[in-house]
Amino acid sequence: MRMKSDSDDQPMLQSSFFTEMRIPQQRSYKGFICPAVLSPNLNAYNNNTQIPSQLLPLDLTQAITTHKPWVDSLLHQTGAILFRGFPLTSASHFNDFVEAFGFDELPYVGGAASRTNVVGRVFTANESPLDQKIPFHHEMAQVAEYPSKLFFFCEIEPESGGETPIVLSHIMYERMKDKYPEFIEQLEERGLIYTRVLGEEDNPSSPIGRSWKYTFSTQDKSVAEKTSVDSC
Question: Which of 16, 76, 178, 188 has CA 20 to 30 A from 59's CA?
Answer without folding.
Answer: 76
